[in-house]
Amino acid sequence: MLPATAVFHFPWEVNSGSVQEGESVRTFGRLVCYQPEESKATLSAQYASKEHHVVVHTLFVEPFNPIIGAQYIVLGETENAEGVGVMVRARVLNCVDGVNIALLQKAINEQRSFFRERECKQGGAAQPADAI
């Protein structure tokens, strides 16, 4: 069985508790640290004048050529790791250096808005059928 479709989460949402353990997620950030001996990378993103970090377990995507300071998008499942908090076990880790992060954030928000609107319309269409 395939894992659930991964939903885009901002880096500051991954560690906030809004993401359940084992949930498939997509997130992004600038690679600030890579520890090959531990198969661990750290992505960083700034939001509201605060730096937010996402720890990524890289065992499934190794070997890869890390570029410190480059932008990456990660797709994987979350898990609680002792001493770290929430960690993303990467299935895909792509360098997307040069991507416009502000535009990516806007696209994520637009996608969320579209899915919410679609969900409301589907929910509203189901109510009259249930009433009959």
Automatic annotation (TrEMBL):
Molecular function per GO: single-stranded DNA binding; telomerase inhibitor activity; telomeric DNA binding
Gene3D superfamilies, alphabetized: Nucleic acid-binding proteins
A GO biological process held by the record: negative regulation of telomere maintenance via telomerase
The entry's keywords: Chromosome, DNA-binding, Nucleus, Telomere
Lineage top rank: taxon: Eukaryota
UniProt main location, coarse: nucleus
GO cellular component, one term: CST complex
Location within or outside the cell: Chromosome, Telomere; Nucleus
Coiled coil: none
InterPro entries for the chain: NA-bd_OB-fold, Ten1_animal_plant
Similarity section: Belongs to the TEN1 family.
PANTHER family, sorted: CST COMPLEX SUBUNIT TEN1 (PTHR33905)
Protein name, per record: CST complex subunit TEN1
